[in-house]
Amino acid sequence: MLLTLASGSLFFPGLFALCTWGLRRARPAWSDSDCVMISTRLVSSVQAVLATGSGIVIIRSCSDVITDRFAGHKMETDTSLCPLPLHALACPRVCLVLDSIHGL
């Protein structure tokens, strides 16, 4: 369980940093807030796709979704921990975007 939390702590911020860096190099005319906004949306989209995929795997592994959903499936607990770093980083990114918008 801690391995999943640690990998999520590296994957999502790393993906965000990589996207922001790549956008700044690929599109130098874009402002920092544009690069941050696109990177945030891309990372959120990746997290949504991963969450949907893991939800499908969990549901398909249950014989009866109503009674088996609290059976403590390992993937069920892991997928709830993995995006925690993403949500913990969301607040500073939102503040950065809002500050850049108000600074216009």
In short:
This is TLC domain-containing protein 3A isoform X3. By secondary structure, this protein is mainly alpha-helical.
Write out key terms for the chains shown:
TLC domain-containing protein 3A isoform X3
Overview of this protein structure:
By secondary structure, this protein is an all-alpha fold. The chain has helices spanning 2-26, 32-61, 65-68, 74-81, 84-102. The longest helix is centred in the middle third of the chain and has 30 residues, at 32-61. The radius of gyration is 17 Å and the shape is elongated.
Overall pLDDT:
76
Q: What is the ordering of alpha helices and beta strands?
A: HHHHH
Percent strand? under 5%
Low-confidence region ranges: none
Count, helices: 5
* Total beta-strand segments: 0
Category from helices, strands and their pairing? mainly alpha
Largest sheet: none
Distance between the termini: 43 Å
Radius of gyration: 17 Å
- From the spread of the alpha carbons, the general shape counts as elongated
Task: List the SSEs and their pairings.
Blueprint: H1 2-26, H2 32-61, H3 65-68, H4 74-81, H5 84-102
Organism: Mustela putorius furo (European domestic ferret)
Protein name: TLC domain-containing protein 3A isoform X3
